[in-house]
Amino acid sequence: MSQSSTDPRLLRAPPKRRLRLSWRDERVRGIVWQVLVVGVIGAIVWWLWSNTVHNLEVRRIATGFGFLSREAGLPIAESLIEYSPTDTYFRALLVGLLNTLKVAVVGIVLATILGTLIGIARLSRNWLLAKLAGIYVEVIRDLPLLLQLLFWYVVLQNLPGPRQALTPVEGIYLSNRGLKLPALVWEAAHGWALLAFLAGIVGTWLYRRWARARQMQDGQPRRVWPVALLLMAGLPVAVWWALGAPWVVDWPVLRGFNFRGGTTITPEYFALLLGLVLYTAGFIAEIVRAGILAVPQGQWEAAEALGLRPAQVLNRVVLPQALRVIVPPMTSQYLNLTKNSSLAVAIGYQDIVSIANTTLNQTGQAIEGIAIIMLVYLTISLSISLFMNWYNARIALVER
Amino acid sequence: MQPFGPILSRALGVAALGLALVVPDIARAQQAPAADTLGAVRSRGTLVCGVNTGLAGFGQPDAQGVWRGFDVDYCRAFATALFGDPNRVRFVPTTAQARFPALQSGEVDVLARNTTWTLSRDTSLGFDFTGINFYDGQGFMVKANLGVRSARELDGATICVQPGTTTEQNLADWARAHNINFRPVVIERLEEVVGAYLAGRCDAYTTDVSGLAATRSAQQRPDDHMILPDVISKEPLGPLVRQGDPRFADLMRWVHFLLVAAEEFGITQANVEQAAQQDQRPEVQRMLGRTGDLGRMLGVENDWAVKVIRAVGNYGEIFQRNLAPLGLQRGHNALWTEGGLQYAPPFR
Q1: CA distance B189 to chain A (A)
Q2: Per-residue pLDDT tens for A34-47?
Q3: I need a labelling partner for A27 at 20 to 30 A (CA). Which of A42, A301, B27, B47 fits?
C-alpha cells in the first residue's frame, strides 16, 4: 500500500492532553499510586535493612564480607581446583560452588538419558519392559529423596574395606572408600587432542549446515556421519599420534590405609549422584512419555503411510512435536535436581551449602553466608532457565 | 524424622536468626532481646538451654526421655539458681553447625554443649564464655585391629570429622605441621559421622578426647576401638551466652564457681542442708547465704547456692555421675588443690 492512499486521519497527531492536577485525571491517579507503592516498598526495605544493621551492632556480631579473604582452615575432601586449608574462605566457597556444579551438570545429563530410556520403555509393546518401567517410576517417585540418598550412602559404606576391595576388572577397585579408577597422566598432547576434538565438533556442525543447504538446492541427501567420524575421532587421534602418542596410566595401588594413585569417585559424590539421577529420572520418564503420547496417533500413521522409516518417523515427525510438550516441564526438573543437590550435607558431600554453612558457623556471619547461598542458587537456576527458554524457542513449531 | 534433623534444625536456627535480626519487634515479643536476657528468662519462667543432640556423658536423653549428662546438669544448676527449681529448663538439642545461630538468634538462652572457647567465638560471633567447666583436648580413635599406635602413623588415612568445629580446623593445622596427608570425610550429624567411622568409611575418627570416650563406651564392644595417646590441641569447654547482658553472664559464671568451690569445701548434695546450718567457716557461710547477701548481689535468692547443690551436687559429684562411667579420669579437671586446673575465685 502506498503512502498516498493512507487515510489522512491516521496521520494526524492525537489531541494533546493537558495534565490537570486532579484526582479525576487518570494519569495523575496512576502517578500517585505508583509513587505510593514504590515508597512503601522502599520504606519496608529501608526498615528491614536498618533494623538488621542495628540488631547486629547491638549483639556485637561482625558484619561485611571481609571474612572472604581470611584463611579458611577447613579441610575439603574433593575439589576440582587446587585447594588446601591455608586458602581463603572465598576459595573454599568457590570449591563448594564447583562441587555443586559438578554434581548438577553430570546429574542433569545422566537423568535425561536414563529418564528418556525409561519413558520410552514404558510405552514399549514388550509387556515386561513396560511394566518394569512403570514399577520403577512409581517406586522412585513415591519415596522421599533424602531417604534415598541416605540409603545409597549406607549401601556404599557397607562395601568391603580397601584391603578386600572388589575388582571387577584389573585396575578398578570398588570399596567403601569409593570407586578407584586408573587415571591417564595428563600431558600437553592430550590437551591438543581435546582441542582437536572440540574443533571436530564445530567442523561437523558446519558441514551439516552446508549439507542441509545443498540438499535444499539439489534435493540430494548427504550422509553426515562419515565426516563426523573423521573430524571427531580421526582428527584427535592424528594430533595425539603426531605429538608422540604419550600413554602413561597411573594405576591405583594399595599402600598403607588406602589406595594411592589413580582417580577416585568418592562414596559421597557417588551416592548423591546416584540418588539424584534415579529420582529425577523417574519424573523425566513421565514427562517424556506424556510428550510422546501427546502426538496424535494420526501423525504416526500418516508418516508411515508416506513411507518413512521408523527412525525417520520418530526424528522428523514425532519428536519435533513431542519436544514442545517435553521441554518446559523438563526445565523444572533440571532446576529441581540442582536445588536438591543441597541435600548433600546429609551425606557429607561438600557442596556450596555445606561449605557456606561451615563458613557461617566459624565466622558467625549467618546473613552473609545465607546471602551467598541464595545468590549462587539464583544464578545457577536463572542460567538453566535462560538456556532452556532459548532452546524451547528454537525448537518451537512455527505455526502459521 | 531422624534424617531430617540436621537440615531442619539448621534451617530453623538460621531462619530464627534471620527473623530475630531483621524483625526486632516480633523478636522482642517472642524471645530474649539482646540487652536483657535475665529479664526475659525470668518473665518466661523457664531457661532454654542448648545441648548436644546426643553425646553420652555430656547430653543425651535416657530411656525415659529424661536428659542426662554433664552439660545437662549445668543447665539444671543454672535453672535452679534462677528459679530454685532444677526442672524449669527446656533442652534444645543442637548440632555442631546449628548451635551458634541458635544462641545468636535467642532460640536458646545459654549453650552448654561441649563448646571450645576461642577468641573469634568470644568476639566476632558475639558471645561471652562464662568459664571452663571441662579441660579437653583433641584426639583420634581408630579400630584396634588397624595396627596404628600413634597419630603420627595416620599419613594417608581417611579421617571422619564434624564440620563447624574447632576439631576440623585443628586437624588441618596439625596435618600441615606434621606433613601428614589425609582425606577428610565431613559429616554434620554426630550419629552419622560415627556411623561412617564404624562402617569403615574412615580409618580414624577425631574429636575431643571426652567425646571419643563417650562414643567408645557406647559401642557394644568398646575394646574394638582404641583412643590414640596423642592429644593435638587445647579444648577448653564451657557454657556460653550472648553478649549484652553482663548480669546474666555473671550468674552463669558464678554457678560454675559455686560448684567448684563446693567441692573444694567438701559440701555435697547430701550434706549441704546441714552445712548451711552448722558450718563454721566464714566463706562457706557467705557462699551458702547464711551471712552476707552475695546471692542478692547476683540478682537471685540468697539461698541459691544451697538449692543448686541440693539439686545437682558439687563439681566432683557431677563429674563422677556423668563422666566417670565413660572411663574419663579427672586429669586436668581435678581441683587445683589436687594438681588440677579447676579453681574458683573467693566468695566474698
Answers
A1: 8
A2: 999 999 999 999 99
A3: A42
Beta bridge partners of B134: B237
Model confidence pLDDT, tens digit, residues A261-293: 778 889 999 999 999 999 999 999 999 999 999
d(CA B156, CA A258): 7
Q: Grid coordinates representing B219?
A: 559401642
C-alpha cell recorded at residue A84:
588446601
Q: Which domains does chain B have, with CATH numbers?
A: 2-135 (3.40.190.10), 138-233 (3.40.190.10)
B208 three-class SS: strand
Report which residue type is found at B348: R
C-alpha distances out from residue A66 to A139, A266, A366, A370, A376, Å = 48, 33, 14, 15, 18
Residue A348 touches partner B, C-beta closer than 8 Å: yes
* A154 contacts in chain B (CB < 8 Å): 195, 199
CATH of domain A89-144+276-395: 1.10.3720.10
Backbone torsions φ then ψ of A173, nearest 5 degrees: -120, 130
pLDDT tens string B4-20: 444 555 555 555 555 55
A249 interfacial to chain B (CB closer than 8 Å): no
Task: Tell which A residues from 218 to 237 touch B, by Cβ distance under 8 Å.
Answer: none
Instruction: State pLDDT tens for residues B136-149.
Output: 999 999 999 888 99
